[in-house]
């Protein structure tokens, strides 16, 4: 199996409800010990599509200034930058998102690396808000948690 898959993404998978529901699963037999929703997809391409959908839904929530959906993209063990604690980081993010009149987050040249229930998504991000426009490289480290891909760490630059 190819452990490294890359894809340049279009906008077809931008789904507003991508965080609301996990991937469709079939009922597991009663003898199964692990829940079906927690298992990583057997098909690497399916895992790549799930990560792609999660990253695009995160960008869409940010662009829509939907703070609840944006914050829901982050795992409970997310490591905020600059040594901030999680609560302070969330307060800061909420303020910075809500104070903007408009936000646009575009993702280009997305490359996804998938290894079991962990993934890395690297891309060129174009962020526009009010009169500011910035382009930078961004990397998100994601973990599959209860059938959903959630952000555990993010970094910019590089």
TrEMBL record:
InterPro entries from the UniProt entry: Cds6_C, NTF2-like_dom_sf
Organism superkingdom: Bacteria
Residue span, Cds6 C-terminal domain: 51-154
Organism of derivation: Variovorax guangxiensis
Keyword Oxidoreductase in record: no
UniProt-recorded name of the protein: DUF4440 domain-containing protein
SUPFAM superfamilies xrefs: NTF2-like
Segment forming the signal sequence: 1-20
Record's keyword terms, sorted: Signal
Pfam families: Cds6_C (PF24125)
């Amino acid at each position: 199996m190819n452990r490294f898959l890359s894809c340049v993404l279009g906008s077809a998978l931008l789904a507003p409800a991508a965080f609301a529901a996990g991937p469709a699963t079939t009922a597991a037999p009663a003898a199964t010990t692990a829940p079906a929703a927690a298992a990583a997809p057997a098909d690497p391409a399916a895992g790549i599509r799930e990560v792609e959908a999660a990253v695009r839904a995160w960008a869409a929530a940010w662009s829509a200034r939907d703070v609840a959906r944006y914050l829901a993209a982050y795992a409970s063990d997310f490591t905020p930058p600059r040594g901030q604690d999680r609560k302070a980081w969330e307060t800061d993010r909420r303020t910075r998102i809500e104070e903007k009149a408009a936000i646009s987050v575009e993702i280009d040249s997305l490359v996804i690396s998938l290894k079991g229930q962990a993934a890395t998504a690297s891309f060129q991000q174009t962020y526009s808000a009010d009169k500011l426009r910035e382009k930078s490289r961004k990397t998100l480290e994601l973990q599959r948690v209860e059938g959903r891909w959630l952000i555990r760490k993010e970094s910019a630059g590089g």
